[in-house]
Amino acid sequence: MIKTDCHMHTAFSSDSEEPMEMMIKGAINKGLDSICFTEHMDLEFPKKYELSFVFDIDEYMNSITWLSEKYRDRIRIFKGIEIGLKPNLSDQYDRILSSYDWDFVIGSTHLVDNIDPYYGEYWEGKDEKTQIYHYFECIYKNISACNNYDSLGHLDYILRYAPSKGTDFSYNDYKDILDCILKHIIDNNKSLEINSAGYKAGLLAPNPSESIIKSYMELGGTSFTIGSDAHTSLHIAYDFDRLNKLLESLNINSYKVYAARKPETRQIITVN
Q1: Three-state SS at 167
Q2: How does pLDDT run across 151-188, given as a tens digit for each residue?
Q3: Is 168 in a helix, a strand, or coil?
Q4: 130-151 burial code (b ≥16 CB/10 A, e <16)
Q5: What is the dihedral of CA 57, 58, 60, 64, to 10 degrees?
Q6: Which of 73, 195, 228, 252 fits 207 for a cystine, CB–CB 3.0-4.6 Å?
Q7: What is the pLDDT of residues 211-232, one digit of tens each?
Q8: Which burial class, exposed, middle or buried, applies to 30 when counting CB atoms under 10 A from its CB (0-12, 13-18, 19+)?
Q9: Cβ of 33: how many Cβ atoms within 10 Å?
């Protein structure tokens, strides 16, 4: 059993309307012993999408402080943030991250050439494999410029929105660039997030897919974080039972939870 969900969003993120306390109650009801709220902070997100992925950090911190006290005997609550990586934003993110006592930082790539692959415009008239490859190139460029994060978020996020939904995804088609990404996070002591929202999006795998997880391990990677990317209480720990079976098949028996930006190892409890 996986007892922690390290990737969750509330109404502090502009793509969620769920109150923070509702998410806490949902996590308790699902038997989790700790959670981390990782609200979106995508500076310079394109105005054309009419979403402002920034939030009031002071209000966020105050909310976690009083809710942590209220539920202190029932669940541990960590303070997190999901930053939208872009090379030109590295200094701004450094200032945000150094100004508050964060527990956990996810580094994610949501934009390619200022376009979100969530929207059809990214794919229109383009070769799918070329667009996926370009996304991975963008990730490598981002992590090469921005090093202030703890776990690389949903590495193949783009497959959620690809026309084929990743049904013909092959690691070998992108091996050169994916190897560069995986070696980079290993060399820089970053974790690899395993995000169960891939299942929710209709994929046959989490993000990243099994082949990427295997390659990460073959290259020497051992550090994982686990999250659902839940934006409502219904999706907390989404398909963690299914995910647990995948991890067991890969001989992954532990994951990391970050407190004060330091990793703590949690064992995955097998229930027969």
Answers
A1: coil
A2: 999 999 999 999 999 999 999 999 999 999 999 999 99
A3: coil
A4: ebbbbbbebbeebbeebebbbb
A5: 130
A6: 195
A7: 999 999 999 999 999 999 999 9
A8: middle
A9: 13
Question: Hey, what amino acid is at 141?
Answer: K
Token pair 């090093």 is found at 147
CA distance linking residue 107 with residue 142, whole number of Å? 9
CA distance 126 to 123: 5
In angstroms, what CA-CA distances link 221 with 19, 122, 265? 36, 31, 15
The DSSP call for residue 202 is T
Say if residue 196's pLDDT is above 70: yes
Tokens of 134: 């370009």
Give the list of residues 6+ apart from residue 43 with CB closer than 8 angstroms, or none.
53, 54, 84, 86, 89, 92, 93
Burial environment of residue 234 by CB neighbours within 10 A (0 to 12, 13 to 18, 19 or more): exposed
N-term to C-term CA, the chain? 10
Q: What are the residue ranges of helices labelled H in the chain?
A: 20-29, 57-70, 90-98, 128-145, 175-187, 197-200, 210-218, 240-249
| Pairing mode of beta strands 262-267, 254-259 | antiparallel
Distances in whole angstroms, Cα of residue 159 to Cα of each of 155, 219, 248? 9, 23, 23
